[in-house]
């Protein structure tokens, strides 16, 4: 009984983390859509730091150099 509760709790925690990462990814995409590159860059770095082994972090690592370029070019 205790083991079943523990397993269920772990699953709920994992699902909550996935949902959080997906929300952050959505915010990141919205910043890009609005050409808010500094905000997108900041959020990308947060995702990479907070969830370093996530699919989102893996995808964003490759985008950081281009985001830095865009942010410097936007000056806002």
Number of helices: 3
Distance between the termini: 55 Å
| Rg calc | 16 Å
Low-pLDDT parts are none
Overall description:
This protein has helices at residues 2-33, 37-50, 55-74. By secondary structure, the chain is mainly alpha-helical. The model has no long low-confidence stretch (mean pLDDT 94).
Summarize the structure.
By secondary structure, the protein is mostly helical. It contains three helices and no strands. It has helices at residues 2-33, 37-50, 55-74.
Q: Helices, strands, pairings?
A:
Elements: H1 2-33, H2 37-50, H3 55-74
Helix pairs in contact: 1-2, 2-3
Observed structural traits:
76 residues; 87% helix
